[in-house]
Amino acid sequence: MIGLVLVSHSAALAEGVRQIAEGMTQGRVPIAAAGGIDDPENPVGTDALQVLAAVEAVYSDDGVIILMDLGSALLSAETALDFLGEARRARVFLCDAPLVEGAVAAAVQAGIGSPIEVVLAEARGALTAKQQHLAPSPSASAAASLSAPPTEKVSTLRLPLIVPNRLGLHARPAARLVALVGQYDAAVTLRKSERCVSAGSITAVMLLDARQGDPLEFSAEGDGAAAVLDAIGRLALDNFGDQDDDGSPAADPAASPAPLNDPTGRALVGISASSGLAVGRLYPLNEARPTIPRAQIASGDDEGEIARLAAAVEAAAQALEALIRRSNGTEAAIFQAHRLMLHDAVLLGTAREGITGARLSAEAAWWDAIEATAERCRQSDNVYLQTRASDVIDVGRRVLHLLTPYTPVLSDVPSGCILAASDLTPSEVAQIDPQQAAGIVLRYGGATAHAAIIARGLGIPMLVGISALNDLGEGRIVVLDGDAGCLILDPTPPQIDAARRTMEERRAHAARLREASRQPAITPDGRRIEVAANIGAPSDAARAFALGAEGVGVFRTELLMMNRAAPPDEEEQVRLYTTAAQAMPGHLIIVRTFDIGGDKPVPYIDIPPEQNPFLGYRGARVWLDQPALWGPQMRAICRASADHPIGVMFPMIGTLEELDHARELLLRVQGQLAAESIAFNAAMPVGVMIEVPAAVTMIAPLVERVDFVSLGTNDLTQYLLAADRGNARVSHLAAHTQPALLRAIRQVVEAAHARGRWVGVCGEMAGDPHLTPVLLGLGVDELSMNAPAIPEIKAVIRRTDYAQAQTLAAHLLTLASAEQVEAALTG
User: Fold this and answer.
1) Is 450 a catalytic residue?
2) Residue 820: is it exposed, middle or buried by C-beta count within 10 angstroms (0-12/13-18/19+)?
3) Contact status, residue 749 vs residue 759, Cβ threshold 8 Å
4) In angstroms, rounded to a whole number, what is the distance separating the alpha carbons of residues 563 and 546?
5) In angstroms, rounded to a whole number, what is the distance separating the alpha carbons of residues 46 and 353?
6) Rounded Cα–Cα distance for residues 653 and 698 (Å)
């Protein structure tokens, strides 16, 4: 059956036409709508990859017909065809019929089994009936011809103008121009001197190197030619959207900008992700990229490589959409420009030619196209355009890292350096040797992201949100203040001396706390709280034990899955869990099953791009669905429990059915081991993470099925408040002082204690000394945290009266806002 694809700038319009056409055929003809773009604030537009997905959804060897509304719809459809293999591309036809009438006519003809030539002809003639019905009478037509002077058809309209922008048509104004052009039914070109480029290609517009004062000429053809040139003229009068442009001479963009909030120009303010001070030289990791296979692909593999590239581009675009939603002003504009670069027809066409012509892999073809574009930027004599090469490379890396997942080697870096990067994954941070790297500074990221959590576990000071990081350069001396959340550039000798004195004082204080850390944490009125460690590897257990850990509250086993091509097998896992247990003889080691997804992707587990990954396929949902994961891991945990006190804990449990399924798998594995005469602890403690609000509301029946529960306060807080902790616009809502969270903790404690189960906290809240009295007063039995926090938390417990903590918690539960809770704690 012939399939139809309807491409429109409006998702609602495309879907409406689909419904009309489908109604004519009672659903017999496969019809897919590809309308709008995934941008809630600016949803009007077209997306080539959305068109590609629609074609794939309705494709058959009978053929596919694509009908479009106007302007960039045609460009997006043509770009989508570029990503199809030659065999399929030959069976896909772009039809110049009107969208609504053409879709209905084509659907009817396709529904009765007509060949594709007939369907196309019927669609193209769909306006005939309307034209005949509305045709003016001969007399009216004659009158019109007498009264109107003869006109000459103008095929091309032109608009000359002078570039008003102080920095010329750089990435952001170029992005605005391209987005504007795509809204009109017109082919628009842009000429500077002898060079003429398509105004619909962001890379072509950028590389035209149009500077302030340069004369340009826009040419447009098509029904929307006059309208689009008028809109371009208005955009130019508005400095192409550069509202901060005052027309003054351009400054050297390569110079490091002084931060707006620091009149001295020597400090940049970010977000503290891991406390501490560090002095060192910046060591950028921006040039890291995976090894790219250069061998030619086999004949016939080009279709698969094109599909891989298309999927990676789409995933990168979704990641950029998330960044755009989390960003404000200039940052959002930069990411919008990056998103346009991803869909640039010239760039994608060059990459596709590398696959089909030079028989390169998707990685090699894409990177060659990126490097060629970036090199043209670098070779420009325009300093600002030279700096835009980094934008091209940034876009290229996003796709490249999706095509070839990799982890840069971070364990061998210059001693005492401050690592600088756009972002780091949890597995990358886990590689860093705290004896080598003195600190970490990131352009993106969040204070409660897993990468930040691991940095705190390693005791490495870390700042995120330093937007000017790319402009700072390598080797620059800085002071990283993880407490104040600032990065001091080019510090004076007195500033360096003051920082080093403070660092020494803190080391001395930490040494005093460590001396007492091996003693139990008992309040003055006799309440003992177990203090455990969060670990990600067996080596962490020994370090935590030396700092006073009384067990492991959560072994983050997903970190064992990263930086490798396949998950650890059963035997390796037995060794890992046993080694951790041997580092803490006699203490309970709680092994959390693989908790992947969200911001912890694993390259060899297929998790398709999701709109809301933190609400999607992650945690127990992945683990329960993958026998290759739960089988070897559950066997290894059970085997290790034979000789050591080991428990198992399931993450992201939201329903009783999920927990019952997990327990059934445990019983199944134990039955297998018994049949094989392999030893295990049949009474191994079983627990569950409480991090989904549904688990709180179902806590009473849930705790009847387990031996303990552990509150994952990071996820629980963001899910309770519907506030993404990595989103700067709403992260303030995801505070551990929110009354909703405190009441949820109390609800869990009361239900668990009523059934004789103990309650732990293993989120970041457990390691916050400011909140330790609150958790004690709410009745938790165990606190599990990153190892460096253990000595101080134990010291706080020893000086906190349990009865007073209960009184404090009871008062906090009556308050109505996080601000009131904060005031009560600090007042």
Assistant:
1) yes
2) middle
3) yes
4) 27
5) 23
6) 11
Q: Distance (Å, rounded) from C-alpha 377 to C-alpha 400?
A: 20
pLDDT, residue 601, reads 59
pTM above 0.85, yes or no: no
Active site residue 762: yes
- Go through the domains of the chain in sequence order and give each one's CATH number: 3-128 (3.40.50.510), 157-241 (3.30.1340.10), 267-287+408-497 (3.50.30.10), 302-403 (1.10.274.10), 524-601+614-826 (3.20.20.60)
Which residues are paired to 422 by β-bridges? none
What residue has token string 């941008």? 39
Which among 377, 486, 638, 762 is annotated as catalytic? 762
Predicted local confidence at residue 443, as pLDDT: 82
Most confidently modeled of 96-105, 133-142, 152-161? 96-105
Please count the CA atoms within 13 angstroms of the CA of 213 that sit on its side-chain side: 4
Residues in the chain, total: 827
Report the DSSP beta bridge partners of residue 216.
161
Per-residue model confidence as pLDDT tens digits over 445-465: 667 666 787 788 788 999 988
Residue 248: per-residue pLDDT: 34
Quick one: three-class SS letters along 653-681? CCCHHHHHHHHHHHHHHHHHHHHCCCCCC
pLDDT above 90: percentage of residues in the chain: 37
Beta sheet of 437-442, edge-to-edge order: 267-269, 486-489, 477-481, 277-284, 417-421, 437-442, 462-464, 271-274
Catalytic one of 343, 401, 450, 587: 450
Contact residues for 393 (Cβ-Cβ < 8 A; gap 6+) = 370, 374
CA-to-CA separations, 133 to 101, 129, 136, in angstroms, rounded: 14, 6, 9
Backbone φ and ψ of 57, nearest 5°: -70, -30
Instruction: Note the pLDDT of residue 256.
Output: 31
CA distance linking residue 727 with residue 647, whole number of Å: 34
Alpha-carbon distance of 726 to 326, in angstroms, equals 8
C-alpha dihedral over 538, 542, 543, 544, to 10 degrees? 90
pLDDT digits (tens, 9 = 90+) for 342-376: 888 788 888 998 999 888 999 999 999 988 887 87
Q: Which position has the token pair 């309705």?
A: 58
Alpha helix locations (H) across 362-463? 362-378, 383-387, 389-403, 426-431, 450-458
- What is the C-alpha separation between 203 and 549, in angstroms, rounded? 55
